[in-house]
Design a protein that fits this description.
Strand order of the largest sheet of chain B: 1-5-6-10-9-8-7
Largest sheet of chain A: 7 strands, mixed
Radius of gyration of chain B: 41 Å
Strand content of chain B: 15-25%
Structural class of chain A: alpha+beta
Oligomer: heterodimer
Strand order of the largest sheet of chain A: 27-30-31-35-34-33-32
Helix content of chain A: 25-40%
Helix content of chain B: 40-55%
Largest interface: A-B, 94 and 88 residues
Number of strands of chain A: 39
Number of strands of chain B: 10
Shape of chain A: elongated
Chain lengths: 772, 371
């Protein structure tokens, strides 16, 4: 929202701080200013000038004009405007003035020295008329302005600050200056209204006020009004529309003017739209409505989308002679829903959705009467204000215990100062008991903003200035916070992976349908985003692997080999239930070779995370190498997968991937380790080599040897694997060293031999040859 | 015999001295000192001497033997030293060659900052909580005093999942979970990933990281909040920071504040990074709205609290001088393997931030805890 400094200065008596300082004070005490910019500073130098004579310049549309300026005497300029004619009173910009970023100089145009220039309204920042130079009726008495831009987000809760008067009230309170009321209710005629107003639902439209005017002249507004609107970014249109915008920008009351002669009947209905009812709005778009949308209607149908935009058919035009001026109040939620559903945000809807004050409607009409009298000569009011509303009593005052207030702020504020602050903001303050105020809230703050005593803490706090509060250490008992074991575990896993050479990546939680399909994951089995930013972000990832795959493809352009990992949440669709989130650890090793080293490196990583993790044969997923895939188990529970990505997914090399359900791994990992006595008697070792089929899993052979060795087995170590002569083709020999011992005594060589023989016999019984 | 001994001793001494290899030396030892050596021979011949003369020659013989043995041992030690030196010389290794081991990987910059800040809070008695990324509309909005159709919902463009579910737009819903789980009094933080449905550019992301913090206790005041934020931020930036509060609107706090810190580049004097204001907007905070306490089953007449939100992503960018937010989730090893070192405020003060155009005061990266 843009605020004009000049406008504020009109409303705050004796405003004496410069715009920059005002901006700073507003930021500190009211709402965030995004900055101040000078508006039309050139107006300092611009003055009126009468064109004395015009001489054509050969070749082109330019004319040589001699003008008599009001401040600089006679000047000669070259002008290209078609309306430059003798006798015209226009605006003169002297040489040396900066205008819209460039300095106006004395230049020679087509052999004629042009001293300064004549300017259009658009060039001067007064309006948007660039068709010709400005046509004045008298001296140009517009002053340079400053625009203070306030962040709209910081006004979300303040319906009153969507107009200059609301901000002026803040400024007056901050600076202890008087505030001027722009509306004079005395101007409102005491008579029954000419139009009847029927409100279908007072919850949706708590108040609708209207006044009819006759003998209207529709014409451009005077320059001061055009300039005022243009400066804050509103487009001057004609005097009637400009008055509605001016009132809105001044007291935050959106208004609308209908051409009364284009309305059917004498009743204005405020009702829900009928299903399928259509309205062509001022923006020339046609909207198909539903009962969720509130409309203003006449006997023939909808004439405006309530609180959002007027209808085209009943719009003010040059020929309008009678108007109905609407000043109404609508439910914030209803306006917001309509505006969102139709994707139509207007200056009016933005204000209404902040919960405007119903008391303000008639005040708006009073202000408009004064303005229209000034700028539409001969205008007459027909009847009085038609005013339909549900009168509501003021809300109960808020009890404000002053000691409680001090405790909240953390400093003492004198009762008199609290009172002064609240009264400057037009709160009513009574003191029903010792050190307790009873505070009544002004109507413009009562719609949503202020309802409890905590809200008053802010009013007092911001006005005394938060910098007046001395920081104070809270007195808190020392307490050991609950331990977040999971998070600690995640950090530990990250540290280990990084130490082993893996670089951590963060990928998005989104997945495209295309990528899901490429990994043969059913898009419909995923949680879907109803309003994705882009089509390729429509699903939530149910696996970290597609993200890592993309990282691999991208990084393979620059690196021969690399290691990546990510810890992130998989999001799983669970029917009607809320989606499930599972934290996964996924890692990848990319290499140019097709060996198995990258898989072994990942296996080593898995074993580093959980030394007891086991590799178990598993069926390949569609995106895995069919012969290089395995499940990972921990104490019999499946905790993840180790596989190579299918080579058809990566052209530049090979990538192994490790995918571990970190929640499961963490839950299964033994946490309480207990001391085991160190063995006191010497152990004995012997080696065994088992001949097996080439693709038989060594892990299985090892498990068998271990099982047959039984209790005395202390450890079993892989020594080597061999195939080739003298072994027959298709066979391999796998060698292990077994170490056996007893906790009670030293095993005799006979006992060791017996154990060894027992294992050999058992293996032979299973059909294995042993090379001993 | 005495002459013979003297001659033998002198000559053996010379030969020991002259030996050029261990073998030559050993040969001398065998010849002279060995069991059948020259000295042994003399010893045998001694029996022929008179008792008196035998005792005298015996003494000489022993002295000669000791002298020669010592000379031999010394010479032998010299040779061994020399041999070892030659062996060692042959073992020269170029330690500038690469180790051949896998170089360490690195942690993501967000992980690092997050861990650092978690530690800071743990030391101040805060619990670290987690919440789901897929949240209910209730927890994300309603329970935080943002009812449906509240314009504050516009501040956070939301990814909707249907059936009242959404991707959380802030970590604030973990406040709700924390209050329900821990009950008052409590101190908690909740770092995590959040989502906003906005277009991505160098300073805006639809996915970023926040850290929510909350303390609920008796009689928590604005003065406590300021003290606490100052302490916290001094820990984060590893230097003293000057803070100020100004009004800010967030429906789940009342009063609500924007907290600014003195610009870390100019220390408040005014510079281009802080647009000459001397201040940089850092985080939103406030006293917990009584409705929020009540909705989580805490009596606001008995308890009060403060809450704040810290933009981890923005902090990471400030800390490391990262000029494009998109790098963080690019998975690009050219970026991630830079092993960024956190030269906390130093990096910012050195002018990096300014150079990269990504310091405080730049167009805020989303993720500032906007309501």
């Amino acid at each position: 929202m843009n605020f004009s400094y000049n406008w504020l200065a009109e409303l705050v008596g004796g405003l004496d701080v410069p715009p920059e300082e005002l901006s700073r004070l507003i930021t500190l005490k009211t709402a965030e200013s995004e900055g101040v910019r000078a508006y039309s500073p050139h107006l300092e130098a611009v003055c009126a000038a009468r064109v004395k004579r015009v001489e054509p310049v050969s070749g082109g549309r330019n004319v040589k004009a001699v003008v008599e300026t009001s401040r600089y005497g006679e000047r000669t300029v070259v002008c290209g405007a078609s309306n430059c004619r003798a006798g015209l009173l226009t605006a003169y910009v002297p040489a040396g003035t900066r205008l819209n970023g460039r300095e106006i100089g004395k230049t020679v145009i087509q052999g004629i020295e042009s001293d300064g220039m004549l300017a259009s309204g658009a060039e001067l920042g007064i309006n948007r008329d660039a068709a010709g130079i400005l046509e004045l009726a008298g001296e140009l008495d517009l002053r340079p302005d400053h625009i203070i831009e306030i962040d709209n987000k910081s006004l979300t809760h303040r319906p009153d600050l969507w107009g200059h008067h609301g901000m002026a009230r803040e400024v007056a309170a901050i600076l202890h200056k008087p505030l001027r009321e722009p509306a004079d209710r005395g101007l409102l005629p005491e008579a029954p209204g000419v139009v009847r107003v029927e409100i279908e639902d007072l919850d949706l439209c708590p108040r609708y006020s209207a006044l009819v005017f006759e003998n209207v002249t529709v014409q451009p507004s005077p320059l001061w009004l055009q300039y005022r609107l243009e400066a804050i970014g509103l487009n001057p249109i004609n005097n009637i529309v400009d008055v509605t915008n001016c009132v809105m920008a001044e007291i935050a009351q959106p208004m609308h003017a209908f051409d009364a002669d284009k309305l059917h009947g004498h009743t204005i209905y405020v009702r829900r739209a009928r299903d399928g009812e259509r309205l062509t709005a001022l923006n020339e778009e046609t909207y198909e409505l539903t009962p969720a949308n509130l409309v203003i209607a006449d006997e023939a149908g909808a004439v405006a989308l309530a609180g959002v935009i007027g209808g085209l058919a009943s719009a003010i035009s040059e020929g309008s002679r009678r108007i109905v001026l609407e000043s109404a109040n609508f439910s914030a939620a209803s306006i917001r829903r309509t505006s969102a559903a139709l994707k139509l945000r207007t200056d009016a809807s933005m204000r209404f959705e902040k919960s405007q004050d119903p008391v303000n409607t008639v005040r708006g009409i009073a202000r408009a009467v004064a303005l229209l009298r000034e700028i539409s000569p001969g205008i007459r009011v027909a009847g009085g204000v038609s005013d339909a509303w549900r009168k509501r009593g003021r809300g109960a005052p808020i009890g404000l215990p002053l000691d409680w207030l001090n405790r909240k702020l953390g400093r003492d504020v004198e009762a008199a100062q609290v009172r002064a602050i609240l009264e400057a903001l037009e709160f009513g303050v009574e003191e029903p008991g010792p050190r307790v105020f009873s505070v009544s809230v002004p109507s413009w703050r009562a719609t949503k903003d202020i309802s409890i005593k905590d809200d008053l803490v802010e009013e007092v706090g911001r006005m005394i200035g938060y910098d007046s509060i001395t920081p104070q250490a809270p007195l808190l008992p020392a307490r050991v916070p609950p331990f977040n074991e999971e998070r600690e575990y995640h950090h530990e896993v990250r540290e280990k992976a990084a130490a082993l050479g893996f670089t951590e990546v963060y990928n998005y939680s989104f997945l495209s349908e295309e990528l899901a399909r490429a990994f043969r994951m059913d898009p419909d089995a995923h949680v879907r985003v109803l309003n994705p930013i882009a089509a390729d972000q429509s699903l939530l990832r149910s696996s970290l692997i597609p993200g890592l795959w993309r990282n691999i493809i991208e990084n393979a352009k620059y690196f021969e080999g690399f290691r990546l990992f990510e810890i992130g949440r998989e999001i799983h669709k669970r029917g009607q239930a809320a989606p499930g989130e599972v934290t996964h650890f996924a890692a990848a090793v990319f290499a140019k070779t097709d060996g198995a080293e990258h898989l072994m490196e990942l296996k080593h990583l898995a074993e580093t995370l959980a030394p007891d993790i086991r590799v178990a044969p598993g069926t390949a997923l569609p995106y895995e190498h069919p012969y290089r895939t395995a499940q990972l188990t921990l104490y019999g529970k499946v905790v993840g997968r180790l596989a190579e990505l299918h080579p058809d997914k990566i052209e530049q090399g090979r990538a192994g991937v490790l995918d571990i359900d970190l929640d499961a791994l963490h839950a299964t990992t033994e946490r309480e380790l207990r001391y085991k006595a160190v063995r006191r008697f010497p152990a004995s070792s012997f080696d065994l080599s088992v001949v097996a089929g080439e693709q038989e899993l060594a892990g299985g052979i090892q498990d068998k040897l271990a099982a047959f060795a039984g209790d005395p087995l202390e450890r079993i170590e892989f020594l080597r694997q061999y195939s080739g002569p003298p072994l027959p083709p298709g066979k391999k020999s796998v060698s292990y060293r077994l170490t056996v011992a007893s906790p009670e005594r030293t095993l005799s060589s006979e006992e060791v031999s017996a154990i060894r023989q027992r294992i050999i016999d058992a293996m032979v019984a299973l059909g294995y040859d042993l090379r001993v | 015999m005495r002459d013979k001994l003297a001659q033998l001793q002198a000559e053996a001494g010379r030969r020991i001295e002259a030996a050029s290899t261990l073998d030559e030396l050993e040969a001398v030892r065998v010849e002279v000192l060995g069991r059948k050596g020259a000295l042994g021979q003399i010893s045998k011949e001694m029996s022929k001497l008179e008792a008196e003369e035998r005792a005298a020659v015996g003494k000489l013989l022993n002295a000669a033997k000791q002298e020669l043995e010592a000379a031999f041992a010394a010479r032998q030690a010299d040779f061994r030293k020399q041999v070892l030196a030659e062996k060692l010389a042959s073992e020269w290794v170029d330690l500038t060659l690469p180790s051949g081991g896998v170089p360490a990987g690195s942690l993501h910059p967000i992980t690092r900052i997050q861990a650092e800040i978690e530690q800071l809070f743990l030391s101040m008695g805060f619990a670290v909580l987690d919440g789901p990324e897929v949240e209910t509309e209730h927890n994300n909005f309603d329970a935080l005093n943002i009812p449906p159709d509240h314009p504050a919902r516009d501040m956070q463009d939301t990814f909707w999942l249907g059936a009242g579910m959404l991707l959380r737009t802030h970590t604030s819903p973990v406040q709700v979970r924390g209050m329900q789980k821990l009950g008052p009094p409590l101190r908690m933080i909740a770092p995590g990933r959040v989502f906003r449905n906005e277009e991505v550019d160098a300073s805006h992301e639809h996915t970023f990281y926040q850290l929510e913090g909350m303390m609920v206790d008796r009689d928590v005041s604005v003065a406590h909040l300021i003290y606490f934020m100052k302490t916290l931020l001094s820990g984060v930036f590893k230097r003293d920071v000057t803070v100020r509060l100004r009004p800010g609107y967030f429906p789940f706090v009342e009063p609500g504040f924007e907290l600014d810190i003195h610009c870390l580049i100019c220390d408040g004097a005014g510079c281009p990074v802080c647009k000459q204001s001397g201040w940089v907007e850092l985080l939103p905070c406030g006293l917990v709205h009584p409705n929020v306490l009540r909705m989580s089953g805490i009596d606001p007449e008995e308890w009060s609290g403060f809450a704040f939100g810290l933009g981890l992503t923005r902090l990471v960018m400030m800390r490391y001088g990262i000029d494009d937010i998109r790098r963080l989730q690019s998975g690009d090893l050219r970026f991630l393997n830079q092993r960024l070192t956190a030269g906390p405020a130093g990096a910012i003060r050195s002018g990096n931030a300014e150079r990269h155009g990504l310091a405080p005061g730049q167009p805020p990266v989303s993720g500032e805890f906007e309501a």
